[in-house]
Amino acid sequence: MHERARRCEPGTRFLEARSQGCVPDRVLSYVNAMDIWMATCLVFVFSSLLEFAAVNVMSRQARSLSSANTSGGKVKAATGVESAMHPWSAERIDRTARVLFPALFLLFNVFYWLAFCVLNLVLLLPPAASSQGLPFHQLWTLIGNASTYNPSIRPDADGPPVTVNCSLYITSLGSVEETSMDYKVTLFLRQRWSDERLALAGPARLGWLDLSPEAAVSVWKPDAYFSNEKTAAPHAGTADNTMLRVFANGDVFYSTRLSLTLDCPMNLRQFPADVVTCSIYLESYSMSTRDIVFRWSLGNPVENSDQITIPEFKLGDKILHEDCTKNFSTGNFTCVRATFSLRRKIGYYMLQIYIPTLLIVIISWAAFWVNMESAPARVALGMTTILTMTTQSSGSRTSLPKLSYATAMDVWMTACMVFVFAAFLEYIAVTYALTNSHDLLLKLAKCKEEEEEEAEVDKKTKETEFGEKVSSLAQGIDNVSRVFFPICFLLFNLLYWSILLLVLNEGGE
Description:
The protein has about 500 residues and is α+β, with helices and mostly antiparallel strands. It has helices at about 15-20, 35-70, 75-85, 90-125, 135-145, 215, 345-365, 375-395, 410-435, 435-445, 450-509; strands at about 160-175, 180-195, 210, 225, 230-235, 240-245, 250-265, 275-285, 290-295, 300-305, 315, 320-325, 325-330, 330-335, 335-345. The two termini are about 40 Å apart.
């Protein structure tokens, strides 16, 4: 498979892109043919509306002026004044517009489609060759079986280390797994270095030759690997997705397409409002910095396709690339690192977690309006909300690893569980006040009786009074709960969402 064409600089037009051999950027800084068509159609529609408004206004003015002059007996004078004030009457404007608008739109269509066809014919012409190819037999004399070229020895083995310029083009990114803390990526790894053993003699050192994967094994290549990879697989559908280009001056360009599963440690304390920072580490496995040095290519060495879409994340605008040379007991080994950020989209969790649990908490408050003596209804409502919250809490952690710290989602689920459980405890308090407090108040009243005879007389009266006090106490608990629970939950929401929005804004920056 051929190498993907490089992207043009922003603002490059189509004809310029064709001559440069690049693909124009999707974010266009100029007007394209579709924009011209849509803008012109909008102008015609808007002009017809203006014409209708002008005709309407002129007709009203003419009718009002005619009626005013007719009442004064000045019809002829009014007609003269009207014609003097409005040489273009409403009827004349309408007749002119019926011919002018179609004629202008027809002329625009002729000019537009003529230019469109001519431009397409120009673009279909084959582009001129940018350089001349390198004869294969000249290169084979350098790397063939009869040559002294050894692909297992680096260029200039006794000299300074080989400098390898690296770049990445990410074609797909996704499958970010919190449980295993990794992600999958498909990319093009591009490397360029100089091998003087492949340089051709003579003053004209131009052109290049693309080698097949079978012939590419005869050329030395860097032993690059991704140090944070878990699995890696090269692509070989109909053929190996590799390209090796040898230039006449000895430069070598090597590109391969890979699918990787890379490790990505995550801090999930702010989940689901967190920002995941992942890196790609490219290192040399067996050659130390005395033999090889990796460098990022100049310009924009790490690019990503515009078609990358991650349902749960938004890819950051900037990709950092830096050196990360490491020191081991066996020596210093070259390393380059690319770091990018993924900001999690909270919309899914709003619909699946936050809104349902919010409604469950509100439903638990309905028990405060149920009759205190309806024990089955209040118990069933309380137990149902508690079990539903337990199920929601368990489901919210299925996509997370077994963390030793609490996430923002855990704080929300715990608070909702506390509110639901507290609503159930409130009914237990009301039931206790209804069943047990009545007997306790009667015993206290009997101790305060001054005379034994009066106790028998006033017994029924005091029982009634104590019963009313107990009922009013239980009802008071319900009345207070109807206001206290919503206010506390509202204050918690204000605090929670203020902090969460602050975290989201910091992540967006």
